[in-house]
Amino acid sequence: MRSAHRNFDLLLTLGERLSRRIAFISEETGNRGRDYSWTPTRRLQQIACQLQSVWEMTQEAWRARDCQVVFIFEHKPWYAYPVYAVCLARRQTVLFIVHGIQQTHGQSLFHRMGLRVLRLIERHADFWPVHLEVSDRNVAGVPRFTKSIVMPHPMPREPQLRAPRASPSVGGVVRIGILGILRADKPVEPLLDILANHAQGHAGVELVFGSPRWQVPESLLEKLKVRGIVYRDTDAPEQYNAVLHSLDIVVAWFERDAFYFRPSGIVHDAIAGGCYVLAPDFPVIAAQMSTPVRCGSACKSLEELPLQLERAVDEVLHAADLQARFDAWRAYRSDERVLEALCLAIDSATSGRVRRIEPRPSN
Fold first, then answer.
1. Helix 322-332 vs helix 265-272: crossing angle, to nearest 10
2. How many angstroms separate the CA atoms of 61 and 279, rounded?
C-alpha cells in the first residue's frame, strides 16, 4: 500500500524498525480512481467513491488481525465507522494522521457527527491522533483530542525539492512567485495586485505565476500580462519543480475556514526548495514556517502583506544566515528524525506512559 501523499511513504518502514507488525490503512487506494461517470450527479459520484473507500479500508482493517498497531494515513471520520469498529473489537492501538478533519467538522451534520464519534473513541480507547507540526493543545476554536502525537511533516519525496539550491538573488534580481492549483479557498486575485504594486516601486523584482495550464482561463492570463507577471505552466512535476527552484520568495494565501488548522503542501515544498515564504498566520502553517527556525513570515491579514513582502525581499538579499536556516529546517524534517519521532510515539503509546508526545529540535 502507498499513501496518496508520497511524503508519508517512509512510514511504511516503521514495522521493520520497531520489530512489530503494523498495518497501514489509507482511503486513497489504487482503485479509488474507478470511473463513476455513469452516475447522474456529482454528489452521487462522491457517495460512490466514499462507499468504495470505506469498503476497501474495512477490508484492510479486517486483514490486520495479527497486527498490534494500525496506522491510518488518510481517512474521513464521517464514513470510517466500520474501520473503527474492527479495530475496537480487536483492542488494537490505532494511530491516525490528522489532516484537516478538525478543520472541516463544521461543513455538515455528517462531518460533525463523524468527528464527535472519533473524539469519543479517542478519549476512551487506544486511539492516537498524529498532528503534523503542532498539536491542538493551545489552538482556540478547534475541537481538541485528549491525546496527541506531534511529528514533523516529512520532506518531499522528489529529490529536486529536497536538494539545496543555488544562492538566491542571482544578478541582484529577486524572483517572487505564486504557485499551485486554482481553488476557491486559495484566492490569487488580491495577491496579484499586491505583487504588481510592489514591483512597480522596486527595481530588480520579477513576478511569476505558476499553475497547470488547463486550469488557467484566458481572462486570468490577460490580467497577468497587464500586471507584468510571467505565467509558467506547472502541470508536470518537472515543470513545478523547475518553477519552484527559480524563485526566491513564494507568496501563498488561504481562506481561514479551509486552512486554519491544517498544513499547506505549497508552503512545505517551497521551504524545502529554499524559498522564503509569506503565508497567513494560521497555527499549522505558521509552525511550518518557523520550526525549528524561521524560514518565512506569517501575515495576520492581506493588509499586512505588502510590509512583510518588503521585509522578505530585504532578508533574501541581505540575511547572511538564510541558507543555514533552510539547512536546519530540512534537517529537522529528515527521514531519520521523523521515523525517530514515530518510533518513540508508538513505544510510548503502546506502553500507556504518556498522553502527549512532541519532538524537540536537535541541538
1. 120
2. 38
Mean pLDDT, residues 244-265 taken together = 91
CA distances from 82 to 79, 118, 141 (A): 8, 12, 29
User: Which positions ≥6 away from 31 have C-beta within 8 Å?
Assistant: 52, 56
pLDDT digits (tens, 9 = 90+) for 8-33: 888 888 988 888 899 999 876 444 44
Run of H or E including 218:
helix 218-227
| 106 contacts 261 by C-beta, under 8 angstroms | no
Tell me the CA distances in angstroms from 8 to 26, 111, 199, 285, 340, one per residue in order: 11, 25, 38, 18, 14
Measure CA 135 to chain center: 14
Cis peptide bond prior to 187, omega within 30° of 0: no
The model's pLDDT over 293-324, given as tens digits with 9 standing for 90+, comes to 999 999 999 999 999 999 999 999 888 899 89
Whether the CB-CB separation of 103 and 32 falls below 8 Å is answered with no
Those residues whose C-beta lies under 8 Å from the C-beta of residue 228, and which sit 6 or more positions away, are 196, 199, 207
Q: Tell me what percent of the residues of the chain surpass a pLDDT of 70.
A: 86
pLDDT 10s digits, 238-248? 899 899 988 99
Give the amino acid at 45.
Q
Under 8 Å between Cβ of 249 and 280? no
Of 311, 350, 302, 359, the C-alpha closest to 68 is 350
Residue 189 grid coordinates: 486575485
